[in-house]
Amino acid sequence: MATFELYRRSTIGMCLTETLDEMVSNGILSPELAIQVLVQFDKSMTEALETQVKSKVTIKVKALSFS
């Protein structure tokens, strides 16, 4: 899964996508502009997480074997 997909699946990402879809459907925005907004959202989320989040998480998974 690409990193941006994680952001878009967040609550704010899903709300943004839903709103943009509605605006495109109602003719308020062009599909091209909606895509530009999502691309900027991806860039902004990446930058915010790189510069403002100080905590890191490491997840270790133990493989299960089934017989």
Describe the structure.
This protein has 67 residues and is an all-alpha fold. It has a single domain (1-52), classed as Transcription factor IIA gamma subunit, alpha-helical domain (Helix Hairpins, Orthogonal Bundle), CATH 1.10.287. The protein has three helices and no strands. One of its GO terms (cellular component) is transcription factor TFIIA complex. It holds the Pfam family TFIIA_gamma_N.
Please render the helix and strand layout as text.
Elements: H1 3-8, H2 11-25, H3 31-52
Helix pairs in contact: 2-3
The CATH homologous superfamily name equals Transcription factor IIA gamma subunit, alpha-helical domain
Query: Quick one: how many beta strands?
Result: 0
Please give the alpha-carbon distance between the first and last residues.
29 Å
Tell me the series of helices and strands, N- to C-terminal.
Answer: HHH
CATH topology: Helix Hairpins
Shape: elongated
Number of helices: 3
Domain Transcription initiation factor IIA gamma subunit N-terminal: 4-49
Keywords: Initiation factor, Nucleus, Protein biosynthesis, Transcription, Transcription regulation
Protein name: Transcription initiation factor IIA gamma chain
Main location: nucleus
